[in-house]
Amino acid sequence: MRIISADYIHTGHGKVLKDTAVVINEEGKIVEIKGFSNFDAGQVEKLHGHLIPGLVNTHCHLELSHMKGKVATGTSLIPFISNVVSFRDMPQDLILQAIKDGDEYMYENGIVAVGDISNKADTKEQKEKSKIAYYTFVEMFDFLQDEWAGNEFEKYHQVYLEQARSGNNKVSAVPHAPYTVSPSLFKKINALNTDQATVSIHNQETPPENELFLTGNGQFQDFYKGFNIPLDKFKANGKTSIHYAIEHMDPKQRTLFVHNTLTTDKDIAAANAWSENVYWATCPNANLYIENRLPNYQYFIDANAKLTIGTDSLTSNWQLSVWEEMKTINRYQSYVDFSTLLQWATLNGAKALGMGKDLGSIEVGKTPGLNLVELDVNEKDGSSFTLNPSSTIKRIA
Ligand SMILES: [Zn+2]
Fold it and tell me: CB–CB of 152/141 below 8 Å?
């Protein structure tokens, strides 16, 4: 048993507690939350700063961790993808070491659960022994070619079967993005998953993506030509790309739309009307790295949309830290208050991964992990808090 107290305890669902202690058992499960005065002061670990729940990273590609610093920033998405493809070949031992380092870095930086895109089974071994809970999204694509769907599905189904099956890793099949998945492949992916699954899809990350679906033209036409893949059967539906996704995905499954840098209030309304199980993963550092822009979070806040936070991969980020993502949002769009930001980074993420029962908030019965952080406290009211660029995070439990 440990009895832990801090100047402030932020529960992750909007409450801030003072003069309070959290009692956790050997497994880190919270067995009691009570006033500090109920305990013998000598038994309490009294910490200075702010206690927050473990963070949830809803979008990562751990298997790309060896790519750190290799791809140029600010190129926009299409040149970025071409760049990534050219760096795929690396000695396997370096790839595995980078995966191990990435997993351990995330744990040390307060992350308790990760939604992780996998195109291979390279992360299997690390996930089997990791202290982090994973949801592995085995990603499939067929470059919009219906007639390739069968073969591509079989190829990635094999990868799906090879993933870690321990209690700490869930697995589902997911479509890569609207501009790479045919209607036939969407059908096969939906059928492989259960209704309780979480799935994800990259969404509205770059202007040419919407352009392809709105007009049938733009840079994706050149991208496809560059790979000698025909798009003559593709028909633009005159709507933004998210409409194509929701037309072919299963509204019963929890769906994480990832990036959403171009997503408008109308797009959010369409997705929310389609399903109650919609979550939105934002990866601000990756958006700045690749496209040099951020989503308009006000649209999501106004629509009561459930935002979550992801780091994306080390191909497009300087570190795998949800805490650093929170700082970036605060730096560029500081109207998002700390309590809202914390809920995106904890409870919303845990729910998106179907792990809300155990993770995401400081509540009796949960095993959320505990982090000690530094924040600025507003002197006037003593109850509003802000991140600053040097705010640190330290894992406590
Ligand atoms: Zn991604």
Answer: yes
For residue 309, what are the β-bridge partners? 282
Cα 326 to averaged position of ligand 1 atoms, centre (Å): 18
d(CA 156, CA 163): 11
From the CA of 29, how far away is ligand 1's center (Å)?
A: 32
Per-residue pLDDT of the chain (397 residues; tens, 9 = 90+): 999 999 999 999 889 999 999 999 999 999 999 999 999 989 999 999 999 999 999 999 999 999 888 888 888 888 877 777 777 678 999 999 999 999 999 999 999 999 999 999 999 999 999 999 999 999 999 999 999 999 999 999 999 999 999 879 999 999 999 999 999 999 999 999 998 999 999 999 999 999 999 999 999 999 999 889 999 889 999 999 999 999 999 999 999 999 999 999 999 999 999 999 999 999 999 999 998 999 999 999 999 999 999 999 999 999 999 999 999 999 999 899 999 999 999 999 999 999 999 999 999 999 999 999 999 998 777 778 999 999 999 999 9
Distance 61 CA to ligand 1 centre (A): 6
- C-alpha of residue 225 to centroid of ligand 1, in Å: 23
Structural domains of the chain, with CATH: 2-52+363-395 (2.30.40.10), 55-352 (3.20.20.140)
Burial zone of 295 (CB within 10 Å; 0-12 exposed, 13-18 middle, 19+ buried): buried
CA of 384 to the centre of ligand 1 (A): 33
Please tell me what DSSP assigns to residue 54. Answer: P
Residue 60 CA to ligand 1 center (angstroms) comes to 6
Q: Are 137 and 253 in contact (CB under 8 A)?
A: no
pTM for the predicted model, two decimal places: 0.96
CA of 353 to the centre of ligand 1 (A): 16
Distance (angstroms) between ligand 1 centre and the Cα of 237 equals 25
Please tell me the distance between residue 220's alpha carbon and the centre of ligand 1 in angstroms: 18
Ligand 1 center to 51 CA (angstroms): 30
